[in-house]
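Contributing new complexes? Match this layout with adenosine-5'-diphosphate.
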Amino acid sequence: MGLTVLSGPSGVGKGTIVAAVRRLHPEIWVSVSVTTRAPRPGETDGVEYHFVDAEEFAHMVKVGEFVEHAMFAGHAYGTPRRPLEERIAAGAPCLLEIELQGARQVRSALPDARFVFLAPPTWDELVRRLTGRGTEDGDVIRRRLDRARIELAAETEFDEVIVNDEVTTAAERLVRLMTSSSH
Ligand code: ADP
Ligand code: 5GP
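Output block (do not edit by hand):
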């Protein structure tokens, strides 16, 4: 099974690590999720996410287009089924970057996948990163930090933990796990 699921609290650096993996290891296929949240400055439809409205998302759920889907801080997120199944069937190394509820759904559907938790060096550093990104207002940051406490408590459910101290080092650790045969 060439599927790896990367999870971890909002602001820990999942998007940054995945961007580094894409840049350094273009042979790894990264799933593009669907979301109802608005694009952040610099995000492009079809690259970081497929951006849709709530109605379109609900339709996609109804017709079974998602492997998993979940609500996070007031918005819906889901992993499109078809491209992932095609890449797994082709034997490609595949990476999903999703939150905890989605990771649990994937564990039920695809128990052979590898589950990796990205952890912050400290709680204070997580708060600094989430606040420092500057893309959310205070209320949204508070909701994301509330979720972060829940997500951090679930670290032990995962097969591996990577501490995101330095971006390239953490990205290379992830790639090494993905390409090792121990799972
Ligand atoms: P997530 O996708 O987990 O919500 P992001 O990738 O958006 O997190 O990262 C949150 C913030 O932390 C961004 O401003 C990013 O530049 C910064 N960041 C990510 N990784 C590191 C790191 N290893 N050291 C310092 N800052 C980081
Ligand atoms: P953000 O809005 O910061 O990009 O993402 C918020 C959270 O949603 C992050 O924890 C991210 O990993 C998660 N996420 C992104 N795509 C998906 C998805 O397809 N499914 C699920 N369950 N979570 C996702």
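Reviewers usually confirm one structural detail per submission. For this one: The chain has a mean pLDDT of 94.
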